[in-house]
Amino acid sequence: MVASQPPGETLREIAARYDRAETTVRNQWSTHPEWPAPTGKRGQAYLYDPDQVDAVVTAHFVRPAVELEPGRLYSAAEIAAATGISAGTIRAERSKGRWPAPDDQRGAAKVWLGATVAEAVKGRQAYRRRGAAG
C-alpha cells in the first residue's frame, strides 16, 4: 500500500504556479504577517493550503489586471489613479528602463496608450507596505 501525499503546496510549487522565483516566495511572501501557517510537511518542505496562499497573494503581492481603453492616451496622473503606481514611480522606472517611453505628449505632459500601460503593468508585483490597508 502506498502512503498518500499530504495535501498542500510547497514554496517551490507556489513559486512555479505564480511564475515567480522561489527566493521571492521564500524570502518575501512567506515572511508576510498574513502568510498562512503550514498545514504539514512533505519530506523537509512545509506545505501550505493553496486557497489560503491565494488569498494572501491576491491581497498583497499580485497587482490586479489594469482595465484601460487600449487606444486611449493616459497621463501619469490617470495611470496612477487606475493602477496605484504613482507618477514618481513611473518616472523612476522610466529612468531605469523598466517603464516604456511615452506614446505621445499633451503639451509638456507625457501620455501612454492604455495598451502600453497594460503591458507594462502585467506581471508587476504589488508594492503595498506591510500594515497598509487593502
Walk me through what this model shows.
The protein is α+β, with helices and mostly antiparallel strands and 134 residues long. It has 2 domains: 50 residues, no CATH class; 49 residues. Helix content is 37%, strand content 13%. It is built from 6 helices and 5 strands. Strand 4 and strand 5 form a beta hairpin. The C terminus is likely disordered.
Stretches with pLDDT under 50, minimum 5 residues: 127-134
Main sheet properties: 3 strands, antiparallel
Count up the helices: 6
Total strand count, please?
Answer: 5
Helical residues, percent: 25-40%
Topology summary:
Elements: H1 11-18, H2 22-27, E1 40-42, E2 45-47, H3 50-60, E3 73-75, H4 76-83, H5 87-95, E4 104-106, E5 109-113, H6 114-121
Descriptors for this entry?
134 residues; alpha+beta; 2 domains; three-stranded antiparallel beta sheet; two-stranded antiparallel sheet; 37% helix; elongated
Quick synopsis:
It is built from 6 helices and 5 strands.
